[in-house]
Amino acid sequence: MTRTMRAVEITEPGGPEVLKPVTRPIPEPGHGQVLIRLHWAGVNRPDVLQRGGNYSPPPGASDLPGLEGAGEVVATGAGVDWPLPGTQVCALLPGGGYAEYAVTAAAHCLPIPQGMALREAACLPETFFTVWTNVFQRGALQAGERFLVHGGSSGIGTTAIQLASAFGARVFTTAGSPEKCAACLALGAERAINYREEDFVEVLRNEGGANQILDMVGGDYLPRNVKALADEGRLVQIAFLQGPTVALNFAHVMMRRLTITGSTLRPQSDLAKARIAEALKTHVWPLLAAGRVAPVMDRDFPLAEAAAAHARMESSSHIGKIVLRVA
């Protein structure tokens, strides 16, 4: 193995053009960590935020973007029983995914689901960790409940639709075009609402209100989400594409006994992420192996063309996951 690797770094805060190919030293795994030779890396909204200077890596993490990938373990630090060198895995990364090699906690690795290629497996960790912890652990979604996910054609949305449907919820979603709505219906949504033509609040209120809403839009969606919830409903916030600041009448939250919660994945402790990984292996990986749930793929780009991948994500024309071809 050579001492250096190809990577893509953020040269300064800005648009996609600030992503530039570079050569970096290969990182070394510490205690409880593994070094993965990546074949594929997922592209996610937090990468775009980091590129713009709005989402700093946690202490000790690589400054390179990239929060998930799939490849082969090539070295381990002390205290690692699994995965061992030679094992193919997909993994949640603290950063550093836009490179040929990345280091992460061994406990944040998961086996490649049976029958799945590395390209698809690279798209699992970031979205599946996020959806599982927010929708099922924090939001406590139950079978038979009415579940609304905004941005249904995104990586998070396509994952949430499939998992909520697989666990027996009634799934509603919003999307911005007939094509995207059709894709959401094909994944198991009961109703896909074109937000350019319909009011999701009216649709959900006519159904009795949503028991849970998963939102990554924020802004003026926050008070509208409150209106769309059923009494004792839960709003789970995971991002703010339209901003986190808004006027909200909390009297409605109190009178209707609503819950507003949310989380971001990256700042959570290694132990918290390891527990999410264990839950996914128990409850979700069998669904992936059985073909009941699968990542929805949009396009792939060579690592050196990460800027083009970001431009596509920011165009919002994609359906599902965008990945970088590393090896």
From TrEMBL:
Positions of the Enoyl reductase (ER) domain: 14-324
One protein family per Pfam: ADH_zinc_N
Organism lineage: Bacteria, Pseudomonadati, Pseudomonadota, Alphaproteobacteria, Rhodobacterales
Matching PANTHER family: OS02G0805600 PROTEIN, QUINONE OXIDOREDUCTASE PIG3-RELATED
NCBIfam families named among the record's database cross-references: quinone_pig3
GO MF: NADPH binding; oxidoreductase activity, acting on NAD(P)H
Cross-referenced SMART domains: PKS_ER (SM00829)
Species the sequence originates in: Salipiger marinus
Source organism, top-level taxon: Bacteria
Keywords on record: NADP, Oxidoreductase
Protein name (record): NADPH2:quinone reductase
Residue numbers spanned by region Disordered: 1-26
InterPro entries the UniProt entry points to: ADH-like_C, ADH-like_N, ER, GroES-like_sf, NAD(P)-bd_dom_sf, Quinone_OxRdtase_PIG3
